[in-house]
Specification:
Elements (H helix, E strand, L loop, with lengths): L1 E3 L2 E3 L1 H25 E3 L6 E3 L8 H37 L14 H6 L7 H5 L3 H9 L1
Antiparallel strand pairs: 1-2, 3-4
Helix pairs in contact: 1-2
The protein binds zinc ion.
Zinc ion (ZN) binds next to helix 4.
């Protein structure tokens, strides 16, 4: 039994969430290796550069592909780090509590979005940045 931050998560639910997360990790990692090379240290990736040949058209194509890879690598890496963070939270017994208000995140939300780190009401709240832009006016 895991009780922390006032959030109770039964082990059966955590196990199934962990399974979902590991599956997601597997999918993201298999996508990542197609567009990026894993660096020797840590969980970092860098976009692949595909050498298609010598011609000018090929060079343009290479750049386009590389730019796509950069974007893909960025978004996939972000998902992967969220997945890893959620998995770490399961291990630490902190999974399922909102990182902002510490309340329990709705189970249905967690089932739909296993990497969710905020409850729905916090996720929908405008971020600090909005206030900053307001002050700057
Ligand atoms: Zn919250």
């Amino acid at each position: 039994m895991l009780i922390r931050c006032g959030v109770y998560m039964d082990s059966k639910f955590l196990k199934s969430q962990e399974k979902l997360l590991l599956k997601q990790k597997e999918i993201v990692e298999s996508d990542l290796v197609q567009v990026a090379n894993k660096k020797k240290t840590g969980e970092k990736y860098e976009p692949k550069f595909i050498d298609l040949g010598q011609g000018n058209d090929d060079a343009a194509q290479e750049v386009t592909t590389y730019e796509e890879y950069i974007i893909l690598e960025k978004s996939l890496s972000r998902v992967l780090s969220n997945v890893n963070r959620a998995l770490a939270k399961i291990k630490k017994g902190r999974y399922g509590s909102c990182e902002t208000c510490k309340k329990e995140i709705n189970r249905e939300r967690l089932k739909a979005v296993p990497i969710a780190s905020q409850c729905l009401s916090c996720a929908n709240k405008p971020r600090r940045g909005f206030r900053w832009t307001f002050w700057k006016r």
